[in-house]
Every structure is written in C-alpha cells, then in structure tokens.
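Thread: uridine-diphosphate-N-acetylglucosamine complex, take 2
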Amino acid sequence: MDSIIVRGGSELRGQIPIAGAKNACLALMPATLLSEEPLTLTNAPRLSDIRTMTQLLESLGAEVSSMQGGKVIAMSTHDLASTRADYEIVRKMRASNLVLGPLLARAHEAEVSLPGGCAIGARPMDIHIEALTALGAEIELKDGYLHALARGGLRGGRVPLRFASVGATENVLMAATLARGGTVIENAAREPEIVDLARCLRAMGAQIEGEGTSTIEVQGVDRLGAATHRVVTDRIELGTYMLAPAFTGGEVECLGGKLELIGAFCEKLDAAGIDVTETEAGLKVRLRGDRPRAVDVTTEPFPGFPTDLQAQMMAMLCTAQGTSRLEEKIFENRFMHAPELVRMGARIDVQGGHATVTGVDKLKGARVMATDLRASVSLILAGLAAEGETMVSRVYHLDRGYEHVEEKLGAVGAKIERVTE
Ligand code: UD1
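Output below.
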C-alpha cells in the first residue's frame, strides 16, 4: 500500500495545473447511457474514481475508451447489456448511484446496489428515490439493491427536493431528459457540476433551462444524440492547491482557476489574510504577512463554502493566529481528520458538527492516516507546514480524487514523495 512522505518547511513557488472536475466527470459519464450515439468528454481527470465509473459503465454495455493518457474519454452505449449496478463496483464509490436515473430513462428499469464511498456519514438515497418516484418510477429495496421500474416509461412532473442534494438533482435531471412531458425540479442543487451536466445534456439534444438556479425545467425529448463536452475545472482541487502557500509562504498560480467557481472560499481566504488575484491563466495566491489569521467557516450547499474543502481549511487554520470555529452542515461525520491533525500538534476540539481550532506556532511531522479523500490531502498540506517528516498512509483515498499530487506539489518546490510499503 502506498504512503506519501512530506518534509515540511519549503516555500512553494510556481504554477499548478488544475484538472477537470472529478465530481462533474462522474455525473457526465453516466449520461452515455441515455443515448445510442457517442459521447466524448475532454479535460477529464485521471483518477481511480473515473476508472471505477468506466468499469461500471462497461458492465452495463457501454464501450469506453480513454485517449491522451486519460484526458479524453470516448463512450458509446449502442445497446444496454445489463441494468444492474453490482455491489462489487458500487461499494467502491457512492457516485455509482448516478446510473439509476439514466437506466430508468433508457430501459425503464434498474437495479442499483446501495452505495459505499467515503465513510463520512450515513449518506442515504431517500431523496433520489422520492425524486424518481415523482417521475412515475416504482422503487423498492430488496437484498441491498434498489429495484426501480418505470412501467410505460418515465413521465415528467413536479419534483420538489427536500434538500438540494447534488446527486439527486443529477439523477432526476438525467432521467427527465427522456421522460414524457415537462419536469420542474424545485430546490435543485446549484453546484457548477450540475451546470456542467446540463450543458452537456443540452449538447446531446436535451431541453433544459434554469441550471445554476434552484428551479430547473426540463422538457422531455424522444432521443438524445452525440456530443463532445469539455469537463469544467475541478473547484475542489483548485481550492486545495490555493491553500498551499498559506502553509508554506511563497506564491502559487493555479492554472484554469476561476473566481466564479469558488467565491465563498475566496472570501474566507481574504479574511484569513491570503491574497487571491485573477490572472489570464488562472488564480494567483499568496499569504500576506507570516501567518494566516483565524476565520469562522460554515459548510453549505453551493454557493456557500464547500464541505469538500472543509478538511483542508481546518488544516490551514491549525497554524493561524487566533481561534477559528468550523461548522459542518452537510455531513454529520466529517471531522475524522481532526484527531490526525492533533497527532501533528494541532489544538482542535470537536463537539458534534462543530470544531474549534486554536492556532499553534508550528505543527510537527508525524505518522498519520488518511481516513477519506479530502482528509488525506489535508494531512499532506499540514505536512508542508510541519517541522520534520510527515508520513501519510492509506493514500488510496487520495488517488480517488487527486491526480499526481506528489508531482504537482513537487513541481512548485514541495519535498514530497510516494513510497510503496
Ligand atoms: C456530492 C459530491 C461530494 C460532496 C457532496 C456535497 C459527487 C460525486 N460527490 O455528493 O463530493 O461532498 O456532493 O457537496 O458529486 N442525502 C440524504 N438523502 C439522499 C441524498 C443525500 O439524506 O437521498 C444527504 C447526504 O447524506 C448528505 C447531504 O444530503 O448529508 C448531501 O448529499 P448530496 O448533496 O446528495 O451529496 P452527493 O451527491 O452524495
């Protein structure tokens, strides 16, 4: 199993290219199931989660080939071979549940195992089920699988979401493109990845309006055609690397970064004493003074502060001047990085969904363990600021969401290497 070793104390300087968004790509890929014609994605990230989705789509009958070292994914699903998403694949990644809507729309039936993925809370599927039921699907849970059936096909309707779930919005959006009649998704998620999915579906011939707002309207069509779509920039990878100079000093330019993807996060960086400047190529970041300042952070659905950047922000606040309060409102169990950061000398007190972080002068290198995707990268960032050596084990979590982390950070001056134990 691989580990990553970081030796802290080097200033970072240079450019970091930001990949296409994992979370967008994982929603875009299942869209191939909606059409007999080819769907090609460019600017795809090279990650193990993308390989898992490839495996899943192939098991359903899609032909998937990757080109340019994985940056281009060409898919085509002329015929469906199966409508069952097996536990063996789904357990590796929750986003596997995004085949449910497309399968129901195209084949009028689907069997999808209940998902796995990061251990960051219960993460049920009830909102997905309610949303697809509103389009006429009958769904029951048997033997750990959701069995879904749409007799005579899905029909459009009003779909009010109890919570603006990203995955449920994506599933119902894809399903509605081929439903009979019109659908209105109310309290839809507004994340940039939803906007990206809607754009791709529209390029395939879907009729969609209102993406990026809380009300998305879809007029069902008989069939979708071929399209080529460029995956939007990964705002979470972007935010992660934007934090790096706050740990080390120096200046980093994140290529492909855009403020509109990450506004709430940038406001917090400014309050913490970190300058962000828009350049032609992306976003340039540097710390004002020697130490960041404490800030309070509450995670919220987009356009609020993203939960997927909470662990990285907490790591940064561990060395800030003053006391910060973090509130996690999206996932109930998402402070598992806190005890690992404490092993590095951080002062963090977690009470339920709240964490209080009192900044210390210096973190100290230690052996720590990655517990989920974003937690693992927060430990690497902390290692950049720590005295001595930090060894992060179980980095398979990291490889699900960050391509070539050691190369990207190494290229701007970090002392970081991957070792295989
Ligand atoms: C997506 C992202 C994930 C991110 C999250 C929130 C992908 C592949 N993953 O996950 O990285 O952290 O959005 O921004 O895009 N919930 C229910 N019932 C449901 C569905 C969700 O209770 O049927 C709850 C979840 O348990 C969680 C909250 O709603 O507490 C948010 O979930 P959701 O927005 O659906 O996130 P995902 O789509 O799973």
